[in-house]
Amino acid sequence: MKQDIYPELKKIENELKEIKILILKSQPIQKKPVKLKGLLKGVKFTEDDMEEAKKALFKHVYEE
């Protein structure tokens, strides 16, 4: 009796795995935002560092 049921159970298990994969692939991937808290702990920024960063980010403003 057990031997008769085993192949059917295996078949159902495989079908469930395929359905799960299809559902996961059909949903959009949601990326979680990365928290930067503590990443730069202890790093000191000077006014020159801030100006350099501004110039790098907003080149079009500083070129004029």
Provide tags for this entry.
64 residues; mainly alpha; elongated
Quick structural gist:
The chain is 62% helix and 0% strand. The protein has 64 residues and is mostly helical.
Explained architecture:
Helices cover 62% and strands 0% of the residues. The chain has 64 residues and is mostly helical. The chain has one domain (2-62). It starts with a helix and ends with a helix.
Q: In sequence order, what are the helices and strands, one letter per element?
A: HHH
Number of extended strands: 0
* Proportion of beta-strand residues: under 5%
The pLDDT mean sits at 85
Low-confidence stretches: none
Based on Cα principal axes, name the global outline: elongated
Structural class: mainly alpha
Rg calc: 28 Å
Q: What's the SSE blueprint?
A:
Elements (H helix, E strand, L loop, with lengths): L1 H25 L20 H11 L1 H4 L2
